[in-house]
Amino acid sequence: MVQETVPPVILHPFSKYLREDMMPHIWCQGCGNGVLLNTFVHALDELRTDLDKLVVVSGIGCIGRSAGYMNTDSFHTTHGRALPFATGVKLANPELEVVVISGDGDLFAIGGNHFIHAARRNIGIKVLCANNLNYGMTGGQQGPTTPLDSVTTTSMYGNIEHPFNLVHLAAASGATYVARWTSLHVRRLTQSIKKMLQKEGFCFVEVLSPCPEIYGRYNKMRSGLEMMGWFKKASVVENFSDPSKADITADRIVVGEFVDINKLSYEKMLHEKISKINEKAMDKVS
Amino acid sequence: MEDEIASMAAVIGASYSGLKAMTATSGPGFSLMQENIGLAVMTEAPCVIVDVMRGGPSTGQPTMPGQQDVMQAKWGSHGDYGIIALAPSSVQEMFDLTVEAFNLSETYRVPTLLMGDEIVGHMWEKVVIPPPDKIRIVNRKKPNVPREKYLPFKPDENLVPPMACFGEGFRFHATGLTHDEHGYPRTSSSEVQSKLVHRLVDKIQKNADKIIRVEEVMVEDADIVVVAYGIVARAGLSAVRKAREKGIKAGLLRLITLWPFPEKQVAKAAESAKAIVVPEMNCGQIVREVERAAKETPVAFLSKLGEDPHTPMEILEVIRRSK
Known about the structure:
Oligomer: heterodimer
Order of helices and strands of chain A: HEHEHEHHEHEHEHHEEH
Number of strands of chain A: 8
Largest sheet of chain A: 8 strands, mixed
CATH architecture of chain A: 3-Layer(aba) Sandwich
Strand order of the largest sheet of chain B: 1-2-4-3-9
Strand order of the largest sheet of chain A: 2-1-3-4-6-5-8-7
CATH architecture of the largest domain in chain B: 3-Layer(aba) Sandwich
Number of domains of chain A: 1
Strand content of chain A: 15-25%
CATH class of chain A: Alpha Beta
Strand content of chain B: 15-25%
Shape of chain A: globular
Radius of gyration of chain B: 21 Å
Number of helices of chain A: 10
Largest interface: A-B, 35 and 38 residues
CATH superfamily of chain A: Thiamin diphosphate (ThDP)-binding fold, Pyr/PP domains
Helix content of chain B: 25-40%
């Protein structure tokens, strides 16, 4: 008698973190967004995060699809509005771990005002930003982080706008934890995400993410490998160096942790204030 | 929050975390909120927005009354959708209709707009706040299925889906993109788009009879019916009383619900009336809906812009002429 053997279904140990029915993802070959999501999932796994108490919020853009890929409560907002939406979530239920995963265009162009104010208030939202130096999803337009002289579809003769230095902006706006890595630095990036998830207040981790299909195509780096080659060549680890001197140029990408301070979070201050006011009111009533 | 765009986004976030959330603004802020009012419509987030209408366009006349945002309330965000808008006429109603707005938004999972005006917004009047147990409170319907079976955008018979909240273990997704019943984006499917958008419109339109509220004063035998809302309706009532004193059979149909538009109520009043008078603090917004519903019955429109709403005498004059 011939016995049929059914091959066992082998689940990836991390499959519980992702919505497999949302796959395949939309990201191009060589894109760094998968690396970012991978390190995020590793960090969650190492911290044994309760997935029922985690909310992932994203804005618009390629990386904006990550909220949909995570097997948690998740919300895909309008362009630039991930942070104010997440602020409402965190204030309404401070027990929730609220993570915003979004891109440089979403967070710093249309959403730039929300970013500086969320950081200023020190609302306990953890921001993971994929910086691909352009608007990749819509065809590679120049954006708020595009380096000077870079070629994009809207700066065909070289970019003449000075870019934001995101770690400097985050530090100056009041974030309690600020770090920058590239998708080449997976281990250190994972450690930074872990650290950020354990801190109180507003935290920001920037991840330089290769965009070979769009940004790289116009800047002589047509493959993911070539973009990673640039990251490898130009990156220098300088932990706790001056973020104002961490501009990204063709020759130099300063990576590392920049800020790690402790400060009362906005949600804590708000709810303490509400309790005190209520106590006073109750005293008056009784 | 830093601006009205952010306020509206935060309200949706708080609503998804299970709280009842609201925000308040005036004209320009209402324009800024439209983007995320659309998001609240698309993700069916119960919430309340108060717009104390001023004179526009643009910065216009801050701290002056107006009724110029009525069509913006209906059509302000891009795309097709249904929405609920209420128009308070007094300070008491500002309180009562805020409660009502929350009840409606929780029932139909739709942003509900409270369209006041500067006078109702600034006026001092007696307000009776009933004890909490005397106030009717409606809460959103919760899912009664386990996590694996929960489809966050699968509607019940009344076209409204039960709503789980963040942190309750349902681990669901919501997006401003066109989505299926799972909440997953389906941006290239005509079928999903058609089904979703028709439902967003129908859940308000098909429940309109349950939503709509009007106040009728001496409408039954009226030859002339004044159709008004907000602060203008109070001058309308005064004009109707004065007309009756002079032997003119006038009545007032006060619109408490602006959207969905009380079409049946206006049509019924128009059937027996000789004419309808619509005073509004704009260049003609609700009057278009009234004309549509009134069919053959002539409609006289009385526009007023600026510092003061219509006086009862101004409305009375039009009632006289319409007789």
